[in-house]
């Protein structure tokens, strides 16, 4: 194969998606051709970076992927099997499939990473712009407020809360593990040995506000999505101002 023909293979080769006999041909060419060696190195660095660091794709990578997806498949021209031999007639389509699979894989990795980053940015912006974050900070700083903690029995999870002078409670619940969408955390106030529901917090609560008065002891349970009137579950965290 010529330099130009070999170049067609380099992307697939860099992703280890060539047949063993194609690998031998490419290996032999790479020993003689510095330009192709540099190109393989480039492909590998791009693939490694996309797979591990989540950095931006280098200039032109989207275009190259798009080109490889849109390029007319050269091997799909119909060739009579008896004229060309079975090997040539199936060889190029197989390579094309491998190339498309490699390109699709890179696209998938990029899409996942972009989505992941978007979600992190969303969460960050929500936290920054959530008015409850500012109200919570102000309540914590207010000397008339009472700060409390809710802790798990094993002491691994501790949530910080505050009750202001007017009896409003705020609780930062973002360190609770996320629940499935059909589950919810529910906040309770303790009245003697009874728990009174103060509110359903959803499966992924951030900062919640609630009517804390007249309670001084609080607990959180995990319940079915709409919440329950009377819980039979053990609290995940509990504690209070008293
Ligand atoms: Zn070359």
Concise structural overview:
By secondary structure, this protein is of the alpha+beta class.
Average pLDDT, rounded to a whole number, is: 79
Helix content: 40-55%
- What is Rg? 30 Å
The largest sheet, given as strand count, sense and whether it forms a barrel, is:
4 strands, antiparallel
Classify the beta-strand content into a percent band: 15-25%
Number of strands: 8
Indicate the structural class: alpha+beta
User: Which distinct ligands sit in these coordinates?
Assistant: zinc ion
Strand order of the largest sheet: 1-2-3-6
Task: Please give a structural write-up.
- There is one protein chain.
- The protein is of the alpha+beta class and 242 residues long.
- It has 2 domains: 3-127, no CATH class; 132-240.
- The protein contains 7 helices and 8 strands, in the order αααααααββββββββ.
- It has helices spanning 3-14, 20-32, 34-52, 61-70, 81-84, 86-129, 131-141, and strands at 146-151, 158-163, 168-172, 183-191, 194-202, 207-211, 217-224, 237-240.
- The strands form 2 sheets. Strands 1-2-3-6 form a 4-stranded antiparallel β-sheet, covered by helices on one side.
- Strand 2 (158-163) and strand 3 form a beta hairpin.
- Helix 1 (3-14) runs parallel beside helix 3.
- The termini are far apart.
- Mean pLDDT is 79; it is low at 74-90.
- Bound molecules: zinc ion (ZN).
- Zinc ion is lined by residues 3, 6, 29, 33, 35-36.
């Amino acid at each position: 194969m010529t330099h130009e023909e070999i170049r067609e293979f380099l992307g697939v080769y860099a992703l280890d998606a060539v047949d063993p006999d194609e690998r031998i041909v490419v290996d032999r060419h790479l020993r003689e051709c510095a330009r192709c060696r540099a190109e393989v190195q480039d492909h590998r660095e791009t693939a490694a970076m996309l797979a591990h660091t989540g950095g931006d794709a280098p200039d032109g990578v989207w275009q190259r992927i798009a080109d490889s997806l849109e390029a007319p498949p050269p091997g799909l021209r119909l060739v009579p099997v008896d004229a060309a031999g079975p090997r040539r007639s199936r060889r190029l389509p197989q390579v094309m499939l491998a190339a498309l699979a490699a390109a699709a894989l890179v696209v998938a990795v990029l899409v996942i990473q972009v989505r992941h980053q978007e979600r992190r940015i969303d969460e960050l912006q929500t936290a920054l712009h959530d008015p409850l974050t500012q109200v919570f900070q102000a309540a914590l700083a207010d000397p008339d407020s009472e700060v409390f903690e809710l802790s798990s029995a094993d002491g691994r999870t501790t949530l910080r809360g505050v009750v202001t002078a007017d009896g409003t409670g705020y609780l930062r619940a973002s360190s609770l593990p996320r629940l499935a969408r059909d589950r919810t955390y529910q906040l309770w106030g303790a009245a003697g040995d009874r728990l009174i529901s103060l509110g359903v917090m959803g499966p992924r609560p951030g900062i919640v506000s609630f009517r804390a008065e007249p309670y001084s002891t609080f607990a959180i349970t995990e319940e079915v999505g709409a919440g329950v009137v009377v819980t039979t579950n053990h609290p995940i965290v509990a504690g209070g101002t008293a």
